[in-house]
C-alpha cells in the first residue's frame, strides 16, 4: 500500500463547497484544516465520506463569518465547539461539521468538558490515535504534530497518551470486527504501555459484539494486518 505524502491532488479536497468553507474561515483571520478520518483515508487512498473541519476560531466567530457569506449554520454541538455549516449549490450542496480546537478539562468516560484553544498540537493531543491526529489545509499541505503519517507508513496504530480501554466490538455474527478487521469480532482489548514503555498487543479472539461504531475502531480496519494476527498497539511516547 502506497501512503501519499500529502493531499495536494485529492479530488475530494477540491470540492467547491469545502473550499468555500475553508476560504471563508481563513478570510476571517482564522486557520482552518480538514481533520481526522478524512485525512487518514485520503492518505491511504481509501474513500472519503464524512469531512470534518477544525479551526482556531470560536463557534460564535465561525457562525458570524459563515452567515455573512450566505452559508447556512446550525448549532449542532456548541458544548463541544461544533457547528454544522452547509455550503455549495444544487447537487454540490454539502454539510460540514466545523469544530473549534479544544482541550479536555474534565473527562467522564467517552464524554468530556472542553475549553477552546488555538494550539493545534493540544487539539491533536485529545484524539484517540496518532493516525487520526493529522490535519490538512485547503491546499493539501499536512500538519502532523504527533507523527501520524510515519505510523501510517509503518501500518502501526499508536494511542495518543498512555493508555486506552477498548470495549467489546463487532459488526455482527460472522462479520468483520470494526476494531481490528478480524472476522467474527473481538471480545475486548486493552492497549497500555507495559514495563519500560513497551507496548502490549491487541489479539483477535472470536466473539460477538453489539455493532457499535467509533472512529477509532474504523481506523484499525484501515491499518492493521490480516485477521488472526496480533496488532501492535503503541503508546504515543513509545520510541521509534
Structural class: alpha+beta
Beta percentage is 25-35%
Fourth-tier CATH superfamily name of the largest domain: Beta Polymerase, domain 2
State the share of residues found in helices, binned by percent: 10-25%
Distance between the amino and carboxyl termini: 21 Å
CATH class of the largest domain: Alpha Beta
Q: The biggest beta sheet, please?
A: 7 strands, mixed
Second rung of CATH, namely the architecture of the largest domain:
2-Layer Sandwich
State mean pLDDT (0 to 100 scale).
76
Radius of gyration: 18 Å
Order of helices and strands: HEHEHEEEEEHEEHEEEEHE
Sequence-ordered SSE layout with sheet pairings:
Blueprint: H1 16-27, E1 32-35, H2 37-44, E2 52-55, H3 59-68, E3 72-77, E4 82-87, E5 94-100, E6 102-108, E7 111-116, H4 120-124, E8 135-136, E9 142-143, H5 148-153, E10 157-158, E11 163-166, E12 189-192, E13 201-202, H6 215-223, E14 231-234
Parallel strand pairs: 2-5, 10-14
Antiparallel strand pairs: 1-2, 1-8, 3-4, 4-5, 6-7, 8-9, 11-12, 13-14
Describe it.
With 240 residues, this protein is α+β, with helices and mostly antiparallel strands. It has two domains: 12-150, Beta Polymerase, domain 2 (2-Layer Sandwich); 157-234, no CATH class. 21% of the residues lie in helices and 25% in strands. It has helices at residues 16-27, 37-44, 59-68, 120-124, 148-153, 215-223; strands spanning 32-35, 52-55, 72-77, 82-87, 94-100, 102-108, 111-116, 135-136, 142-143, 157-158, 163-166, 189-192, 201-202, 231-234. A seven-stranded mixed sheet has the order 3-4-5-2-1-8-9. Residues 163-216 and 224-231 have low confidence and may be disordered.
